[in-house]
Model the fold of this input.
Amino acid sequence: MREEIAVREATALKLGQDDTVIRRRLRQKFEFISDDLAAQVEPTDADLDAYLKAHADKFRSEPSFTFSQVYLDPGKHGRNLSRDATELLARLRADEKADISKLGDAFLLEQHFSASPSSEVARQFGQPFAEALAGLKLNQWQGPIRSGYGVHLVRISDRTEGRLPALADVRDTVRREWVNARRLEMNDKLYQELLNDRYTVKFESAPPPMQTKDMAVK
Done:
């Protein structure tokens, strides 16, 4: 009873008219109407397949790399960095079974990485390093490749190219994205129809700034 009395009195006094929290909540409840309509529409496989292909970048798996690296610290090698990298590269190519744990300089990251996604490689070594891996040959020591730490000699043993998955593999994810896109589309349509049928929007220019006069202190 008290709640009903309070709501009626507050409404009569227009207490919620300029309340941002109340206005936002009313908008949310209003938009639930179109949300409910969108949720009632069940997409066909053809709808989902079309959405998957139209938004391929959102669902495409990224490349991954299995590789080993030997690090050379520019601070330790100085002007001899390029020469030392060339000599070490020749040594690695001559002996594929060389124990790389005993080669190169101390490094805070691992020397072996298995099926690391491109984004993870970029996070650890930097984007230029990850991009360089995409162009290297398999099963051959190559370099030097620069990172944010210095230079590396790299051997890629396996690389998986990015691909667009089949709908069956990501159906639930695609459906969720499709429903959300449908919800936003129906919201936009609802607002546009209401705007065209019931409202006129007027843009008022901002009032000119108040002119102030310098007041001298006497």
The chain has nine helices and four strands.
